[in-house]
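Give me structure tokens for this 172-residue protein.
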Amino acid sequence: MEKTSQTNSTLRNLSVLFITLMLFWVMLVNSLAPDSLLVGALVSLSVALLYRDGLSFFTEFRATPAAFVAGTLYYAYFLRMLVQSNLRLALIVLSPNLPVKPGIIKVRTKLKSRMGRLMLANSITLTPGTLSVELDGESLYVHCVTIGSLDTERATAEIAAGFEQYLEVMYG
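Here you go.
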């Protein structure tokens, strides 16, 4: 029974990746000519077979109504954090005394899925003033231009908790 479940999961990952790659191929070449579709299918199938365990954004996504709502809220939250950190970093750069206190802090994530952790690390990196340096299990090491707290729990609450609340619903 478990082997059947694993086979279905692999087949699903393979299919999702193949379809995603084919869609990108069609958009890239802007043609539905049979020869173009054949080349796209061969290349997409080759890549999908190389990465049969999944390389797609959707392979670990929980396709539930709550996950789609969380996805929308996640992107709204991300944009808000993006604007806030841009303004905060601009104030630091424009300040005459340049109040920086750089360092690397450890953030602990409760996310279980690979894609959820990857999305968290990327969200932190894309937010100005922070850079995800390493992702090791449940620990994420983040370089900050100005460190707020060296305490792992407080740093997690300040940096990751906002993103995690949505990513946990989307990916687990």
